[in-house]
């Protein structure tokens, strides 16, 4: 048997994960990926005398995860998987940066984050080997890492022929919060770990918080009440709606549709203020806890949320109709920054960006968690793969989320929250927790040792998959289109620079 077959948020024993020799491990991964499975996570655990490399694949149609491993003792290299499966390119680069184990013939083997404990301390961020195009008419344009707006650091290096972009290389790794190791250092308190999870990416507080709570609840065999699950689902959809509305506001600003920019911005405030009324924080901090939630939604608040969201739904529909029927807006959005289906599939786009290119995948549907086990959401997708598609699918998802929340509130359980006490963490075990954040698939993988302590906490933000999608989107576009393409993805720096 080459893989352990499991599901989202299911605990399993480490001894049940097959350990293959590296060539078999590689061959089986390539075989399964060519058989319509895809990479979810690919990470190592560094022990005193050897390195264990784990691969987590997903069969989305079956709602199953396939997990395998290989052991490196003295081996210093292996044949690169990226040669056959392009979506592995960043995962293998990360593995090499952490361990120095070389994926031979990797086509783009460059540093990822320059973390403090990287194997090669001589690699420095200022010496990054940017790709260069030679030619009399070719020129380079550098943007960042310090930007004009108040955003996080990242460098964009454009190779241009006149105004046309031939190639964009994105260099990240400017901030190192050491957050994965902090999960291990602060595990004496679930409260401390909850704060950490909420701080992975501030605009995905609920999504990362859910991935964390689900993983610990699975490891402690804790079942939470349906009411707590419903409140969690409401909070996740409020977060999704608020961030999508904010993104539509930013996209309107980039195409000088200032009416839309202002109106979407005002509507977003209504949504995040709804989270504030539930838990006292506009981003949902403090709402979640291992075993349930900290705040209830009573009858009065239930009615208030419904009233607010009915107004939000009406207002979003109104301004979206004006935005997407405006010739001047559509002229800028349509056919700009295209990532076609085949490219999106090859590079492993996830979330809204993938669905805008025709990829039929959403964790809430394909690997349901929490309340979505009882109220599944169908997958929304478009085919265009351009800025228009990435904008319009946001509008579709906003309306979908609001309808879901209203449905939850209409059938809201009237019994107590029944917040559960949590037991001991399973020993020598692992769990993979997947959540659909507003950008896409968030994955937390947790490994415990023989004492029930967390010994590896691995986080994958959807931006890890999608930054390369932005680089592909801007090819053959004018450099003035980059800000618009960038906004249409709205990827996370801090979610990437862990």
Your description of this structure?
The protein has 498 residues and is α+β, with helices and mostly antiparallel strands. The chain has two domains: 4-116, NADH:ubiquinone oxidoreductase Nqo5 subunit (Beta Polymerase, domain 2, 2-Layer Sandwich); 179-462, Cytochrome-c3 Hydrogenase, chain B, CATH 1.10.645.10. Helix content is 40%, strand content 18%. It contains 15 helices and 16 strands. It has helices at residues 22-33, 89-99, 179-185, 190-198, 205-219, 226-254, 258-279, 299-324, 327-333, 341-347, 351-355, 363-366, 387-410, 462-473, 482-489, and strands spanning 4-6, 12-13, 19-20, 38-46, 51-59, 64-72, 77-79, 102-104, 138-143, 155-161, 164-171, 288-289, 292-293, 429-436, 441-448, 454-460. Strands 1, 3, 4, 5 and 6 form a five-stranded mixed β-sheet that branches. The protein has a four-stranded antiparallel β-sheet with strand order 2-14-15-16. β12 (288-289) and β13 form a beta hairpin. It is globular, with a radius of gyration of 22 Å. The model has no long low-confidence stretch (mean pLDDT 95).
Structural features:
498 residues, alpha+beta, Beta Polymerase, domain 2, Cytochrome-c3 Hydrogenase, chain B, 4-stranded antiparallel β-sheet, 15 helices
């Amino acid at each position: 048997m080459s893989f352990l077959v499991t599901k989202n948020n299911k605990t399993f024993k480490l001894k049940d994960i097959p350990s293959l020799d590296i060539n078999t491990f590689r061959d089986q991964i390539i075989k399964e990926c060519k058989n319509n499975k895809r990479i979810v996570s690919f990470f190592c655990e560094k022990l005193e005398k050897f390195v264990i490399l784990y691969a987590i694949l997903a069969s989305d149609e079956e709602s199953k995860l396939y997990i395998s491993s290989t052991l490196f003792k003295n081996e210093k290299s292996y044949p690169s998987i990226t040669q056959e499966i392009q979506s592995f390119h960043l995962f293998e680069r990360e593995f090499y940066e952490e361990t120095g184990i070389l994926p031979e013939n990797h086509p783009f083997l460059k540093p990822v984050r320059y973390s403090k404990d990287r194997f090669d301390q001589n690699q420095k961020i200022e010496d990054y080997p940017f790709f260069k195009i030679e030619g009399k008419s070719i020129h380079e344009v550098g943007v960042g890492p310090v930007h004009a707006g108040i955003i996080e650091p990242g460098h964009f290096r454009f190779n241009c022929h006149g105004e046309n972009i031939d190639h964009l290389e994105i260099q990240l790794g400017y901030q190192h919060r050491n957050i994965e190791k902090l999960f291990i250092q602060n595990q004496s308190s679930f409260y401390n770990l909850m704060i950490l999870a909420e701080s992975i990416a501030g605009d995905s507080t609920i999504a990362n918080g859910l991935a964390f709570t689900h993983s610990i609840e699975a490891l402690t065999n804790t079942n939470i009440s349906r009411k707590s699950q419903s409140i969690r689902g409401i909070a996740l959809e409020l977060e999704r709606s608020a961030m999508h509305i904010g993104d539509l506001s930013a996209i309107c600003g980039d195409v000088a549709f200032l009416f839309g920019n202002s109106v979407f911005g005002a509507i977003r405030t209504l949504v995040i203020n709804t989270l504030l009324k539930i838990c006292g924080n506009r981003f949902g901090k403090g709402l979640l806890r291992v075993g349930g939630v900290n705040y209830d939604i009573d009858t009065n608040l239930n009615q208030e949320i419904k009233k607010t969201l009915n107004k939000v739904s009406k207002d979003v529909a109104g301004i979206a109709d004006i935005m997407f029927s405006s010739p001047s807006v559509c002229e800028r959005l349509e056919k700009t920054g295209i990532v076609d289906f085949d490219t999106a599939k090859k590079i492993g786009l996830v979330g809204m960006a993938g669905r805008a290119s025709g990829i039929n995948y959403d964790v809430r549907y394909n690997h349901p968690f929490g309340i979505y086990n009882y109220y599944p959401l169908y997958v929304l997708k478009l085919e265009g793969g351009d800025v228009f598609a990435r904008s319009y699918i946001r509008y579709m998802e906003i309306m979908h989320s609001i309808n879901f929340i209203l449905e939850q509130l209409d059938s809201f359980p009237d019994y107590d929250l029944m917040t559960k006490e949590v037991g001991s963490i399973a020993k020598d075990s692992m769990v993979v927790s997947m959540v659909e954040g507003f950008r896409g698939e968030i994955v937390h993988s947790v490994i415990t040792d023989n004492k029930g302590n967390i010994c590896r906490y691995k986080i994958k933000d959807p931006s890890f998959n999608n930054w390369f999608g932005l680089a592909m989107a801007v090819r053959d576009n004018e450099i003035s289109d980059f800000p618009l393409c960038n906004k249409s993805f709205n990827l996370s720096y801090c979610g990437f620079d862990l």
